[in-house]
Amino acid sequence: MKKITLALALASIFTLTLIDANAQRFGKTPQDSIECLMNNSLYKEFYKQKAYKDAYEPWKKVLELCPMYHVNTYKQGYNILVNLYNQATPTEKETYFNDMLNMFDKWGEFDGEVWNATARKAQWYEQCKPNEKEKIYNLYKQAKELADKNNALLDQAFCVLYLKATITYLSSIKASSEQMGDLFDVYDYASDAMEKSLTQSSNELDEATQKNDEKAMAKLQKEVDNTRSNINALEMLIEPYASCSKIVPIYEDRFKANPNDLALLKKITTNMERKGCTGEELFLNATENLHKLEPTPKTASLMGQMLIGKGQYAEAIKYLKESEETSPEISVKTKSALALANALLKTKEYSAAREAARRAVSYDKSYAGRASVLIASMYLATPGREAAWAAYDEAARAKALDPAVASDAQKVMNAAHGRFPLKQDIFFEGKTVGSSVGVGGWIGGSTTIRTRD
Prior knowledge:
About 75% of the residues lie in helices and about 0% in strands. With about 450 residues, it is mostly helical. Among the domains are: about 1-110; about 130-240, no CATH class; about 365-453, no CATH class. Helix 6 packs antiparallel against helix 7 and helix 14 (about 295-310) packs parallel to helix 16 (about 330-345). The N and C termini lie far apart (about 70 Å). The relative contact order is 0.04.
């Protein structure tokens, strides 16, 4: 078999040499280009046969002579080295381990994404040398810093692994409350990256849906689902450390020592907002200080959420309206509009609350599920069985739109179902279960007649 494979490879090499000998495209010299093509063809024939040991040397030659030739040099090289590493002796393992690190460096030069190349190194250490927890953590940290330097973001999968590596490292050194602040810095970074990605993909999916572009819809739906999956992974990782009772001690002493430190105030308010700790005294104090020192539409939004936590809804509405109207950032406008909808719900201004929730979705389609749960709550707060049917419809829609709000949506559905009439009541009224009926008042539209038995 090997002789046949080698003969096929040599035939391919001869053909490629005739075609590309003068191209000078792949190496520093014409001879490099010829050798590049010869070794590329040779390793690929072995690779197809899963003869990774035979593919190894010609593959290494391609990497050395023409690292900019093709992305498959890296994708297939990764598979070659993983397979060889898994079957190697301890001495050989070290060689293949270092070969992989060298390849990642060249991969970063090939695609320009040195940050992801560095994250790949961290992942490789995790696979082969998991006890080097500090090394793994520092590599991910370096990758993030390289991404920042290049105005880029780490790939989503690496964001999740970065958080996981941070938790592992901090746990191994029995980190103090102050050191645990690093965990929330990483969580904040990863969450922000995911939110930006979800916003972009959701809005593009909506555009593709309006155009009925099925190919784009399938691709973008996959991206949305993948991002939501990564967000869920992040939340599962942070959950044991993210209760308000655990977050407060991490920042409390630092806040008392430096109550006007802008960078610290931004970290406190961002992370506590993200984890729903807006009713905590630390959040209230940090938000007030931040807004005094550097008032922006974002701090106005935080002030509004703080005031909701204190039950001061009228004041909250003023700040949130200001934030939504003046912010140039879509993420701030969206959060402000949704918080405004919540404040208006508390003051029983249901129609205005629904408008605010719908505006939030117009800014960012990824908020559709959250907005629908809020609207369903408004319907549920409205008297009448038609309102209960409408609340059930809207909550079911939320559940279908976003798995992250499924639990909250189900609670509304259960409460609405409890207000449905009995079959005998519908029968005596001369109406039919399953038929359409109008919804009066501020809700409007139509719904379906249902019973609770």
